Amino acid sequence: MRGFNKSVFQPQRRQQLSRCVIGALLLSPLMLCAQAIGTSGQTVRLVVGYSAGGPVDAVARLFAPGLSRELGQTVVVENRPGAGGAMGGDAVVRAQPNGLLLYFAASPTMTITPHILKSMPFDAAKDLAPIAPILSYSNVLVVNKDLPFNTVPELVAFAKANPGKLAYGSAGMGASNHLSGELFALRTGTTLTHVPYKGNAPAMTDVIGGQISMMFDIVGSARNYIAAGRVRPIAVTSRERNVSMPDVPTMQEAGIPDYEVGGWFGLYGPAKLPAAMVTRLNEATRKALASEEFKNKLLDQGYDLWSGSPQALGERAAKELALWATVTKGIQVQ
């Protein structure tokens, strides 16, 4: 019979084939996954749930080269905006747990969006595996420079004397600066008017122009406007003062003892990502964060590096998810 090779049916050859088949069947999922991370030619995609040019995207692009260096393979940023970052997270939830598709998450998607999005495509607490924290940040409350108050007590007194007159802007429903305002109103017993925008920049433009009274903005974004005297800082939302604006008090120092709002960025993978791969990615992230160039760039922008374990990231996400459950009652978007 033409093309028929009898040698493959010889006893010795059959034993070799049997060993190969059995070895393939016994190969663990972890070993298969290991062929992804650390394999030359395989590209790791870092999913960002927001458009290019925003703060999450900017930090992801600073982080990617360091992670690439530590893993020894190419790492690229992939933007999948929509649904408050949830579209990007959903892509990672559905990915193979081989480490080639990772989620560069911003905390609002993990802790706020689940409460306000009418149809969240995944369970943020169960469907993604925390890998490593990357940084934390705080907001700063800035007001139009012509308004007649300079401190939190003066602002609260004005708001109580003029219910609803003070309007604050945000990057949109459910953004961290939106919820910073909701929590402020809740803790101080004031009535504020929320005006959502399609991003922080247009909201800041209207604070400067006087169309709205104030906003909570990321320290790194607001710092240049403050330095130029275009807006006036009132307080930062973190527990401690921000190193890039040490003269601005915290909300707690200003008289609101139970007020603290901090955001963070963290690295996640699919829920079934093997533990050994989580460990490897965590170690690579820690080493990338230790780069002096990376640290200096982030600190210069008002961020705080946060290097830690997967457990630390998961615990903080769980704590904040519970916090925002109360604050977001009655708030829902499509």
How is this structure best described in words?
The chain has 334 residues and is an alpha/beta fold. It folds into two domains: 33-136 and 264-327, 3-Layer(aba) Sandwich (D-Maltodextrin-Binding Protein, domain 2); 138-236, D-Maltodextrin-Binding Protein, domain 2. It has 13 helices and ten strands. β5 (167-170), α8 and β6 form a beta-alpha-beta unit. It starts with 10 loop residues before the first helix and ends in a 7-residue tail after the last helix.
Keywords:
13 helices, single chain, D-Maltodextrin-Binding Protein, domain 2, ten-stranded mixed β-sheet, 2 domains
Summarize the structure.
The chain is 42% helix and 19% strand. The protein is an alpha/beta fold. The chain has two domains: 33-136 and 264-327, D-Maltodextrin-Binding Protein, domain 2; 138-236, Periplasmic binding protein-like II (D-Maltodextrin-Binding Protein, domain 2, 3-Layer(aba) Sandwich).
